[in-house]
From TrEMBL:
Lineage, top ranks: Eukaryota, Metazoa, Chordata, Craniata, Vertebrata
Domain Neutral/alkaline non-lysosomal ceramidase N-terminal: 2-508
GO cellular component terms, A-Z: cytoplasm; extracellular region; plasma membrane
Residue ranges annotated for the Neutral/alkaline non-lysosomal ceramidase C-terminal domain, each copy included: 511-678
Entry note: cofactor: Binds 1 zinc ion per subunit.
Xref: PANTHER family: CERAMIDASE, NEUTRAL CERAMIDASE
Record organism: Phaetusa simplex (large-billed tern)
GO BP: any one term: long-chain fatty acid biosynthetic process
Protein name: Neutral ceramidase
GO MF annotation list: metal ion binding; N-acylsphingosine amidohydrolase activity
Length: 681
């Protein structure tokens, strides 16, 4: 028996004018909201001693070192020594549609326009709040584990790299992706359901890089469906049951199951360079199973949810036993790896290769770089040398055959461009070992890591461990491919920043952690070099928040384009208001809700909220005009089975008003559409 707690808190942040984090496309700036982003926290505590394990999965692109350090600082001031770097795992779901700007390393500033305090604060505060809620709700309970296969939800997006792995190894697996989902079910001692964590390897990139609405993508939709089912009669974001769909070894795994096609000609571009005869690499895009990206997100999310639901219902294998956690900070740019008795190799200072700039079939790069580049280009090399400096011969040699585009480990202005100090961490809950990895392991890398950790536990008398990989934890270090995949230098390999032996180094390090847990010698592990916390203010190219203005003879919240009087299910009710910058709301109230859909109840002559801005079928669009003016359009995509009756849509905002000089205030306002009827006919 354990003490268990689960908590969920909003971590959405500003939904306008902030670049979205994931595709590294500076034009992909947020301008509205499809679904809210949440941090979901789970605490398992030992009834006998003070040991605890915290697992957090947040609807963000990845956990940055900055986020982690600030969260740990807040936890220390609140809880003393209870929640620490060794027993708190922070994992990102890897949605590519969340606000960026929460990094302290310079490389990530380029596409997210610097360090954006409101964005960083929303994530840090949301994570801490979710842990607070879980902490306050602790009760005696039991854990159950189950596993099963998810079909029709992934493809390998670098199959030619995967084929570089030895045939003898590939022959042991039926697929070039990991189709297994592992779920952990939490119930209290009275049998009341508390929550679920699912680990499954798929990129949340069903929403592509043309999207401007903040959302949690396919895995977020799975969480939404599970929580809506368990928290009956509640609006999204409400209710005590928490369902997290966490990331795993998703490095080379895409949800865009139709595969890559040339956007212009429609022919397949499933080739080693992912390039098209006309238009090159920029034309090669993978398509999801749906009619558009919203539909693909729904289909993949639903697949994942349905499998989790089935595994949850049938889960009967109980997780029992002691809790332990092991953590080290490691300088990943300088690890010596013993491959065998005679051979020692080393990791490298971080660097990104040419194919990093090519992007992937899920989101192509800007300048027609192609994947699989093992040669540099004198033109780009020349520009790089002028702007950023030439890589040293040592770094060039260390990364071979990767042609270096950015030698980030040798770039230190205004701060280092990439981390050297990286977290490695394992938390064991009885027979379950959660391996928290700082990036995106490919399918085969993940298999090798899991196997090595399991073998290590076995050899020290802890047999039968269930090993899961939790992805995008603690600090972001891009990708981790196998040594063989690295040779092909596609996007994932070019983004394996510590060189060809990165995976071997991690395997050595995680084996060390597993051994310490199995032999009960965690206290003897050296902590390692502490990561730096750079003194960065609000350093950003995001425009300052100006005063909002309404057009002449109008006021904020006035309707500009009215709803129709009547709709049927599957139609879209749409209304446009005189709007204000959503950032004026976000910087005011963390959990501000921008919209409601309300149904009229005749008997009580009152309006009842049936949807909010976290609902899947509502969309909130913000359109910026000139001189501080803007419009807001709210859509409700009326689902089949909606109860007939009279409805209205409300918009809730804040406008920023200048008082004097530097002082300004945010003033709340609202707008309401006319009533409209939903009919069955």
């Amino acid at each position: 028996n354990y003490l268990l707690g689960a908590g969920r808190a909003d971590c959405t942040g500003p939904v306008a004018e902030i670049p979205l984090m994931g595709y590294a496309n500076p034009d992909q700036v947020g301008s509205g909201l499809l679904t809210r982003l949440y941090s979901r926290a789970f605490i398992v505590a030992d009834l006998v001693d003070s040991r605890r394990v915290v697992f957090v999965s947040a609807d963000i692109g990845m956990v940055s070192q900055r986020v982690r350090l600030e969260v740990l600082k807040k936890l220390k001031s609140k809880y003393g020594n209870l929640y620490r770097q060794d027993n708190v795992i922070l994992s990102g779901t890897h949605t590519h549609s969340g606000p960026g700007g929460y990094f302290q390393y310079t490389l990530f500033w380029i596409t997210s326009k610097g360090l954006i305090r409101p964005s960083l604060n929303a994530i840090v505060n949301g994570i801490v709040k979710s842990i607070d809620i879980a902490h306050q709700n602790m009760k005696r309970g039991r854990l159950f584990i189950n596993r099963g296969t998810v079909e029709n939800s992934q493809i390998n997006r670098s199959p030619f790299s995967y084929l570089e792995n030895p045939a003898s190894e590939r022959n042991r697996y039926s697929s070039n992706t990991d189709k297994e989902m592992v779920i952990l079910k939490m119930v209290d001692s009275n049998g009341e359901e508390l929550g679920l964590i699912s680990w499954f390897a798929v990129h949340p990139v069903s929403m592509n890089n043309t999207n401007h609405l903040v959302n949690s993508d396919n895995v977020g939709y799975a969480s939404y469906l599970f929580e809506q089912e368990k928290n009956k009669g509640m609006l999204p974001g409400e209710g005590s049951f928490v369902a997290a769909f966490a990331s795993s070894n998703l490095g080379d795994v895409s949800p865009n199951t139709k595969g890559p096609f040339c956007v212009n000609t429609g022919e397949s571009c499933n080739n080693p360079q992912s390039t098209c005869p006309v238009g090159g690499a920029t034309m090669c895009m993978a398509m999801g199973p749906g009619s558009d990206m919203f539909d693909s997100t729904r289909i993949i999310g639903q697949n994942i949810y349905l499998k989790a639901r089935e595994l949850y219902k049938k889960a009967s294998q109980e997780v029992k036993g002691p809790l332990s956690s092991a953590h080290q900070w490691v300088n990943m740019s300088d690890v010596s790896v013993e491959l065998n008795a005679t051979h020692t190799v080393k990791t490298c200072k971080p660097a990104l290769g040419y194919s990093f700039a090519a992007g992937t079939i899920d989101g192509v790069g800007a300048f027609n770089f192609t994947q699989g580049s093992v040669e540099g280009d004198p033109f780009w090399d020349g520009i790089r040398d002028q702007l950023l400096g030439e890589p040293s011969n040592e770094t060039k040699a260390c990364h071979k055959p990767k042609p270096i585009l950015f030698s980030t480990g040798e770039m230190t202005r205004p701060h280092p461009w990439h981390p050297d100090i990286v977290d490695v961490q394992i938390a064991a809950i009885g027979s379950l070992a959660i391996v928290a990895v700082p990036g995106e392991f490919t399918t085969m890398s993940g298999r090798r890591l899991r196997e090595a950790v399991k073998r290590e536990f076995d050899s020290h008398g802890t047999a039968g461990m269930d090993v899961v990989i939790a992805g995008l934890c603690n600090v972001y270090t891009h990708y981790i491919t196998t040594y063989e995949e690295y040779q092909a230098q596609r996007y994932e390999a070019a983004s394996t920043i510590y060189g060809p032996h990165t995976l071997s180094a991690y395997i050595q390090l995680y084996r060390g952690l597993a051994k310490a847990i199995a032999t009960n010698t965690v206290q003897d592990l050296p902590c390692g070099p502490e990561p730096p916390l750079f003194n960065v203010g609000n350093l950003t190219l995001v425009p300052a928040l100006a005063a909002d203005r309404a057009p002449a003879n109008k006021t904020f919240g006035d309707v500009l384009q009215e709803v129709r009087q009547q709709y049927r299910a599957r139609e879209v009710a749409e209304v446009t208001f005189v709007g204000a910058n959503p950032r004026s709301s976000a910087e005011n109230a963390t959990e501000h809700n921008f919209l409601t859909v309300e149904r009229y109840t005749r008997t009580s002559d009152s309006w009842h909220v049936v949807r909010n801005d976290a609902s899947w079928d509502t969309r909130f669009y913000w359109t910026k005009g000139l001189f501080g003016r803007s419009n807001v359009t709210i859509e409700w995509h009326i689902p089949p089975g909606t109860e007939p009756g009279v409805y209205r849509i409300r918009y809730l905002g804040h406008y920023k008003k200048k008082l004097s000089g530097t002082h300004s205030v945010s003033i709340p306002f609202e707008g309401t559409s006319s009533a409209f009827e939903i009919t069955t006919l």
